[in-house]
Amino acid sequence: MNVASSRIPSPGGGRWHAEGVTDGGCLNDIGDRLRHPPSGASRHLPTPGEGRKRSIIPWLFPMGLGLVIVVNMVLLLFALRTFPGLVVKNSYERGRGYGAEIARTEAQDALGWTLDVRHDVGAGRIVVRFADARGRAIEGLKVDAIADRPVGRLATVALPLAPAGATQFAGSFAPEARGAWDVTVTARDPAGHVFRATRRVIVR
Fold this sequence. Notes:
Strand content: 25-35%
Largest sheet: 4 strands, antiparallel
Number of strands: 10
Number of helices: 4
Radius of gyration: 50 Å
Strand order of the largest sheet: 3-4-8-7
Order of helices and strands: EEHHHHEEEEEEEE
Helix content: 25-40%
Distance between the termini: 118 Å
Structural class: alpha+beta
């Protein structure tokens, strides 16, 4: 067996002395030191990725896109549940008859009739006043009216009107909601003349 000579410091310090150490003993001593390191000498080997801080920057784009989608869905839901803006369902047919409507309006203006509509809050009724070009009562008029909301989905309300004086007609009106209402009045005289107009009243 080979013997290796090593110089180990003596307990007294300052002096060195030779001590014979076998090869096997030296290797065993090194192995023991590796397997059982001295206290305070242990090392921690970091695992892959350990010590790195996770960033939220890559998640900002999908988070922002998700927020946009949620907001759009909420706005779409509100749009479907509110008034869509449709006034008449047969807008194409109404558009084709626009020329006839212009002719009717011109003939109506030539009559010189005037129309005034107001809401009598105290009596809960609609009051309609008709007069000719000179402000006189028009004899033999037959008048009826309807009321509907300019916005919303409330049903159209029929207003039966009865004579309430020389130039006035009146009918009860108890709307479902307050606010603006469009009252469309149609009047016919014995000569066959037709007058149709819409006036807006505010129900408070």
